[in-house]
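[Archive record]
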Amino acid sequence: MKKVFMCVMLAVLLAMTGGLGGCGGQDSAAGDKKTVRIGVVPLPHYADAWVAYKKGFLAEELQKSGYELDWHTIALGPVVSEAFAAGEIDMGVMGDFPAFIGRSAGTNFCITSVASTAPEALALIVRPDSPVKSMADLKGKKVATTKAAYGQKLLALLVEQAGMKMEDISFISLSMPDLAAALARGDIDAGVVWDPILTKLESSGEARVVADGTGLYDAYAVWMATDELAKNDMEAVRAVMRARQKGVEYMQEHP
């Protein structure tokens, strides 16, 4: 997880200094407080947001701007996109790949800032005793990751880099906990996982990294907002950004 920490801080600072990169909008008019529903998965990639939530920075900054916080803990990354599509949240964070998929599928949200970038925290792994040395060795083998998550993007790039096509492997979509269990049982030959499971499996000796995103995929996670929020309540988005910056500063002061 330490692979992610500095990347989170740098990404937030970049977003704060570079402005909001995906949406344009107008500030909300003064009046009754509106509720902003935010959904975040408990991952180290989003540590700044979790610190901001736990320490009250999010509620504080939103209240200053005339908004109330409605926090949603979401178990899995792909569910964030589903929550947007169902109209259950106004802001959330996810990998860039599912963000693009959701937008192309008609979900009315847009990118407001970068949450983190951590290419070393996303990797193709095998069992320690596996003979696999590279992606090319997995031709015709069972390889798993979570479909529509950014692990699938890294897998596709690794397949392409090896001069193969996705049809050359037997792709299986599994959640991260199920993937770890399947790899241990030998039900699959390899899988793409990310932190914190990657660090856990690697440090415990249960898995070996074949390749990560270094030099191939920066593994961006991005903050999203509904088109409506970005258009009519940009000050709410700015308040979330300010709270995240406070989260970064708190992590720096309390490592």
